[in-house]
Amino acid sequence: MSKLSNIWVFSDIASRLPEIIAAGVALGEKVSAFVIGTEADINRAYSFGATHVYCLGDKDSQKITEDYSNTIAKVISSSTDTNTLMLLAANKRCKALASKLGVQLQAGVVNDVTEINIDNGICAKHMAYGGLAIAEEKINSPIAIMTLSSGVFEAQVADTNNTGEAVNVAFVEPKTPIKCIERRAKQGESVDLGKAKRVIGVGSGIGSKDNLQIASELSEIIGAELGCSRPIAETEKWMDRERYIGVSGVMLKPEIYLALGISGQIQHMVGALGSQTIFAVNKDKNAPIFQYVDYGIVGDINKVMPALINALKA
């Protein structure tokens, strides 16, 4: 596969940057990372494969991610690189930044990209129609911008001996800046289901919030993270939004996925089909999920879960 001369990368979430840099290494001859933070953050970018770092300054509690669009656009537009690509994490802030950069750089933008091909121009694949189809877009503008779904590229092992070229970039104030007056820690625990090796997903068949405790016990026994279908997170609000698996939630790539009381609508299964092995328990033998699984049990999950726990403990 041919490579582009330069790939620009950015993520406001530190845990996603190594994966974004890995994409840059795979697609570009050099990787130019925009970094907000200290010298340690710059060195971390080098360790994962960045060859050039553009330091946007220390973290400022009053700035939001989108405030850096003018600064980033100025750097990219002044570069001599042509037919280039910028990759960002596919989260809300980076998508907002991508949209602003798309206007400022007159660049085509594709969100939630699941595959990139540069053999015949810059092309990207992403889900369409709620996960019912995969769309492929070819970006014909000189600069292409994409937000990359989690798990598309695997981060390289950090090498602290890696070095590169660093440039301090002066902040360009937006014409109408949004000032962050206060930041509060989000309630609830942090989880990254996209990196989990084993995942248990619970759906409406769980019956009640109290039964989540049994699912949690089962997940601890097999060393799995606990996820859920959309109704559990957004309608019932029994679990955090970060644990919702599906087309507009988390895209899984675990070794094992166990779906408990999940009917298996396509919007959910799109987020689970990257699993190596899928198990499911549902009392409805005609549930759509049985079309996708490797192993299935027709039964009441509130009877099957205790039986599984007892068998595993034994």
* Order of helix and strand elements from N to C terminus: EHEHEHEHEEEEEEHEHEHEEH
Stretches with pLDDT under 50, minimum 5 residues? none
Number of strand segments: 14
The N- and C-terminal alpha carbons lie at a distance of 51 Å
Name of the CATH architecture of the largest domain: 3-Layer(aba) Sandwich
Strand content: 15-25%
**CATH level 1 name of the largest domain:** Alpha Beta
Structural class by secondary-structure content? alpha/beta
**Structural domain tally:** 2
Mean of pLDDT: 93
- Count every helix, treating DSSP H or I runs of 4 or more residues as helices: 8
What do you see in this structure?
The protein is an alpha/beta fold. The protein folds into two domains: 4-168, HUPs (Rossmann fold, 3-Layer(aba) Sandwich); 193-313, Rossmann fold (3-Layer(aba) Sandwich). The protein is built from eight helices and 14 strands. It has helices at 17-27, 39-47, 69-77, 92-104, 212-222, 230-235, 266-269, 301-313, and strands at residues 7-10, 31-35, 52-55, 84-89, 108-117, 122-128, 133-139, 143-148, 165-168, 198-202, 225-228, 256-260, 277-282, 295-298. Strand 5 (108-117) and strand 6 form a beta hairpin. The longest helix has 13 residues, at 92-104. The chain starts with 6 loop residues before the first strand and ends with a helix.
